[in-house]
Amino acid sequence: MKLCFATNNAHKVTEVQQLLGDTFDIISLQDIGCTEELPETQPTLEGNARQKAEFVYQHYQVNCFADDTGLEIAALNGKPGVDSAHYAGPERNSQHNMQKVLDQLQGANNCQAQFRTIIALILEGKSYTFEGKVTGSITQKRSGQQGFGYDPIFIPEGYQQSFAEMSLEEKNQISHRGRAVQQLVHFLNNYKVQHG
Q1: Which among 68, 83, 103, 151 is annotated as catalytic?
Q2: Which end of the chain is more exposed for a tag (fewer CB within 10 A), N or C?
Q3: Three-state SS at 66
Q4: How confident is the prediction along the chain (196 residues), in pLDDT tens digits per residue?
Q5: CB atoms within 10 A of CB 146
Q6: pTM for this structure?
Q7: Which CATH fold topology does 2-195 show?
Q8: Buried b / exposed e along 108-140 (16+ C-beta atoms within 10 A)
């Protein structure tokens, strides 16, 4: 079964294909010829994920899923949240985003945070959503070269390493996206059994 992952982030496609294995063939927006910017105008992660998936399904008639992920920091009242990708400006620069978070947390006692991913799936015209989250804390300085986004400053609960210091396999076992994708995989496998 072919499924379009509505993202232009090659890192995400690799992560998800690894989790899905051979049962499903993940195709990208490039593969279906979608070059326009997907709409993300909703005030919530759920709304954005659904909006992107619906856009692709309506315009390209292909089963697809989209995700939206937010880093929610307690001391910043849940920010950057839905604005995580462009927290420091519209150019979506991860280094600037991380620096803004580190600057805002200077002197903060509570560095608790969570990553939350919502996946919206549109399959044969029906809509489904899945949520994954992981709690942890924000570090004082960046460490690690793996991953992307805020990975170098996020340490998941129970670990000493940041996401950016972990291998893809390690991160996928515990990450917010990994958890949401595992729910998606479980659903898709059941769907395949029921519908062939």
Answers
A1: 68
A2: C
A3: strand
A4: 789 999 888 877 887 887 777 778 889 999 999 999 899 999 999 999 999 999 999 999 999 999 999 999 999 999 999 999 999 998 889 999 999 999 999 988 899 999 999 999 999 999 999 999 999 999 999 999 988 899 999 999 999 999 999 998 899 889 998 899 889 989 988 887 888 6
A5: 17
A6: 0.87
A7: Maf protein (3.90.950)
A8: eeebebbbbbbbbbbbeeeebbbebbbebbbbe
